[in-house]
Amino acid sequence: MKITHCIAVLVLLAACTRPAVGLHGDAAAPVPAPGFVTIENGRFAVDGHEWFPLMLNYKAFIDDGRVVPATWYGGGDVRSHFDTIAAWGFDAVRVCLDAIDPSPDTAAMFAATRRMVLQADSAGLRVMLLVKPPFDDYWKDYAAGLMRRLSDLPALWAYDLFNEPLYFDPQPKRDKSDAVRIVAEWRDLVRRHAPHQLFTVAMAEPIEVFEWDPSLLPVDFIEMHTYHPLRVQSEMWWYSRYCGKPWMVGETSLPADGNQVPFDLQTRFMLETCRYAKACGAIGYGWWAFQDCAGGMNFENQYTGLRDSLGAPKPAAAFARVLRDSCLGTSADARPAPPANYFNMLAYTNLAVVGTVVDRSGRPVEGAVVRGWNDDWSVGINTYSDSTGRFRLVSNDRCVHFEVSAPGYSKSKFDRRPDYPTGLALPGREREYHQIPFLGWGDARHILPVDPKRFEAPTAVEASIGTVKLSLLQ
């Protein structure tokens, strides 16, 4: 009996020392320590004082035992860049070190990363570190070794272990439970080797909910990324209502070259999106990126920086110095309503697919993400279900492929051809936000849609696809 009792006690102790993670993301919190960032009452805090990070994204690589700036960042080394970032008014930096290759000398890579964090600390910046996702054994060992060697640094406030699964998941069509299992393993890795640091995964559009459901992932906070000016506020509002966790904006920006897009619009975008994020309850705000990339693949990629490709600061860099003061008094107490274009972000007008999302008991599901694609998958459109479970997906082309899910629920994917009248004229059917020249289409030059009726699309021809049933995940 005594032996049995001892075994039972040992089993209980083992269970207590291991984070217990369920499908809804319950897990042990990091161990508080002086000087480290914690989450208290849903907000970042340091030694009991609330901290709202203003964060700039910074791309870097490891070369010859040193962390070096991205090759397109001219005029200085990492330390001088950190001094510049701090002088602009930022107090945090997300260092993107995920584009690295395996190396036989991981000790040198760990030492280089540690020196970089200390450089940021001496410049007055805290570091969120984006690392290579630890999917395989090599990168798991790498992450564990890195975390052990940096675990004593309060300036390293969070690890981001995966950037935008929606776009970069190596396995397509991942099941939600598999994503939760992977993130639970990663969080266990962080808790063992970096017990005082926070942990996140960077989310992109709300359609992440189809696989990497933010409400289920066992992370300390959600870091979401959003860019297009007609989608930013809608996506912030959705995350604020339905992700179920503390959240911050990790990346946003308005590309500006001073010609096609005036610099003052970039500054205005920074102010209005930071204010709106705070009003929606965001606990931090991050900008992409430090400097323009002249060889980027598109306009957005080339001109989102706060310095131009030659290293000259844009006006938004100077404005960042007063951004915090400009957002004083903005808080979630305002509880903003969803933006005017929440259900029809790009003001489509031709067609509308209507339906209802319910659970297996027939109760309405609010906040479900509904995505439709046209026949050849060239255009995809999103909308959301309202408090009654109803949705109205407006498009300029016929949607025939559909995917529907909601935070904490299963996913339904199906093809259906709504019963529209024949011979419909469909003007502007190819219009999608990636295809719209920034200054070439009405409200694309404005951040706040000013005519709510424009997004109601009252003349759209409607067809129903009926009821979509989802199962609540246990």
What brief labels describe this structure?
474 residues, alpha/beta, TIM Barrel, Immunoglobulin-like, 2 domains, four-stranded antiparallel β-sheet, 19 strands, disordered N terminus
Largest sheet: 9 strands, mixed
Strand content: 15-25%
Helical element count?
10
Count of folded domains? 2
Look at the structure and give the mean pLDDT. 89
Q: What is the C-level CATH assignment of the largest domain?
A: Alpha Beta
Structural class: alpha/beta
H-E order: HEEEEEHEHEHEHHEEHEHEHHEEEEEEE
How far apart lie the N and C ends? 36 Å
CATH topology of the largest domain, which one?
A: TIM Barrel
Stretches where pLDDT falls below 50 for ≥5 residues? Answer: 1-22, 435-446
The dominant shape is globular
Architecture of the largest domain, according to CATH?
Alpha-Beta Barrel
The amount of helix comes to 25-40%
CATH superfamily of the largest domain: Glycosidases
Rg, alpha carbons: 23 Å
DSSP summary, beta strand count:
19
Folded structure, characterized:
- This protein is an alpha/beta fold and 474 residues long.
- The chain has 2 domains: 33-334, Glycosidases (TIM Barrel, Alpha-Beta Barrel), CATH 3.20.20; 351-470, Immunoglobulins (Immunoglobulin-like), CATH 2.60.40.
- Helices cover 26% and strands 23% of the residues.
- The chain has 10 helices and 19 strands.
- The chain has helices at residues 2-17, 78-87, 106-123, 137-150, 165-168, 176-193, 232-242, 263-279, 299-302, 315-326, and strands spanning 37-40, 43-46, 49-50, 54-63, 66-69, 92-96, 126-130, 156-163, 198-203, 222-225, 247-251, 285-287, 351-359, 369-374, 380-384, 390-395, 399-405, 411-415, 461-470.
- The strands form 4 sheets. Strands 4, 5, 6, 7, 8, 9, 10, 11 and 12 form a 9-stranded mixed beta sheet that branches. The chain has a 4-stranded antiparallel beta sheet with strand order 15-14-17-18, with no helix packed on it.
- Helix 3 (106-123) crosses helix 4 (137-150) and helix 8 (263-279) runs parallel beside helix 10.
- 45% of the residues are buried.
- Residues 1-22 and 435-446 have low confidence and may be disordered.
